[in-house]
Amino acid sequence: MKTIKHAIITVLFLSSLVISSTVSAATDNEPPEVLNMTLSSTKIAYQGNSVPGFVNISLETNEPTRGYILAVRDDGVQAKINLSTTDFKTTHSVNWVPWDDEKKAPLPAGTYRLKTYLNDAAYNSAQGFPVGQLVIVNETNPKSLVTVNSISTTTISPKYGVNEALTKVTYELSRPTEVQIAIKRNNETVYQTTKTKQDAGIQSFEWNGKSTKGALLSDGEYDVVFKTIETAYNYPSTSQTIQKLGNITINNGDTSIPMSKLEEIVSNATFETETLESGTSISASITTKEVANIRVYIATELGTHMNIVYAPTTELQPGTHTFSWDGKDMMGSKALNGKYFIKVSVADSTGSSGYITVGNPVTVTGGKTIVPLQPEKQVRVTAAKTGLQAYPNSQGAEVYQGDVLSLVALEPTDGYYSVLLKGVPAKVKVADVEMINTEATPSVPVEAPTTTNYTVVSGDTLWKIASKNATTINTLVNTNNLDVTIPLNIGQVLQVPKLVDNEPTPEQVTYVVQPGDTLWKIAQKYNVTVNNLLEVNRLTSSDYLSIGQKLVIPTQVSTVPEPNQTIYVVQPGDTLWKIALKYGVTVTELQSENNLNATSYLSVGQSLTIPTKMEQPYSTYTVVAGDTLWKIANAHKVTVQQLVDWNQLDLAKPIDIGQTLRVN
């Protein structure tokens, strides 16, 4: 019983203490007191450099308070520094830049006295309590908010399935800031960090070279863009300041899902029959081994898409899936006669995708066939790479230097030749090809070249491999049954024509091709003709030289010009007009001397006789320090193009001091 009485008394006593304490807080009439205040710097500047651009203010009070500090200059100029406008706190910590919120301008320089204006929860106030002073100075050399100190790796090669960071961007903030970093290409954001508030000082972020979702990106240059909002303003801004502060290049990265992975996902595809009569339909199927988002196309032998025949709206489960094709393109037109393949587009959850052509083709018969001109006439691609407008519906495809296309029509239309490639009709720009003189080079049976294995290494392209092995992209594609829309894989083995070294005879010397060499340059060096080089080395005018290739130089040439005769060997890009201009003759005189007419085409390596009666003496000029082609051309009242043509110059290479140039 006594225990119960003691418990009741204790509860009543504690209750009285709580009531007493509440009444005391409610009836507190004492103003709050500042116990301590510290400044990170007593001298600052707006966007400072020699002095800080902001100050951190820490203030402690004896009870929870809210309010502001007033900075007042002797002439009355003043500004508020908000501590807390809503919450009551005993410890206040704020970052502040010297900014006039009303005038929207930096505070003028001078010494500012600091006074507190605080309220407690009982609305008691401490007004004008002095807590120190702050000196604001003018900064003649303001510091940038963000400075990029380094990018650890400026060129990266992301690979499918590898997500580790490939580069690190280290940057410095001069003031507290909310930062968001974006990676952009052509002003399109492909990767972006979240917004984070960061302190002044050294910061960094890492990137794996992929999109925000982890998708593969195409090779190219990407901008590093900083989006910032300063947080040390009295009333922080809500709009971002955007600055491009660096570049990162993706080179030789996986731009699509590798073929090895695609083959794991899509294992097989088949048509129910090997042929399809025009105007009928055919059934087909694909087999998948993994869950995937896919889309199935019927494609031409060139890889262009005829039609979409299977497009599930959800992820496809492993198994065999059937579909059919009505033998038409996307516009409802019947397919031309030829071979057609099953081509599958595969996408993963990140957005990375790739194409794989699977199974044997179906051959469409009984419809329309596009055939080349007879006798066959061809053009050869002279540009490093150019686009085709290919069947069906003028889809894009690419061809490369050295590729040969058969003409469908002799005369171009609107600047394009109509051609066939792998039996597929297309159009190619006239400016990117040259006519092959098929009449001057009668076709003869050619033995299949001996081939050797070549293993693809990092950085390889079809063009590089073709150049390295003295062959053409078209030869590589045909020999290996490649799809030019599908990238090469490291470790992939290709069959390439085997290089055969010509053993020099007592009347021959061997020359190793150097960077920048052409048949014309080598012929000039050894005082032989291009035709001599072609004949001895069993080359044709369509063959391209590769660095390191060995050529036999004959010491006895088969063609010697007459004593007063000039022979010119046609180079890529030459026209009768250019050659006539170079030698000071007319196009008509060139045609007459060489039995040409207005419809005749020039071919690379072709020899032309220059009329000797019209050959003019010319002057020379020796290059001195500070010369440029423009200066020399201007001084001698000629054009830069004339200097280039007369002297067989390469505009990508500088002229050398002491070099002798023809100038008229």
UniProtKB/TrEMBL annotation:
InterPro entries: FlgD/Vpr_Ig-like, LysM, LysM_dom_sf. The keyword Lipid biosynthesis does not apply. PROSITE patterns: LYSM. It holds the Pfam family LysM. Keywords: Signal. Residues 452-496, 509-553, 566-610, 619-663 form the LysM domain. One of its GO terms (molecular function) is lytic endotransglycosylase activity. Gene3D superfamilies: 2.60.40.4070, LysM domain (3.10.350.10). Residues 1-25 form the signal peptide. The keyword Signal applies. This is LysM peptidoglycan-binding domain-containing protein. It comes from Aquibacillus salsiterrae.
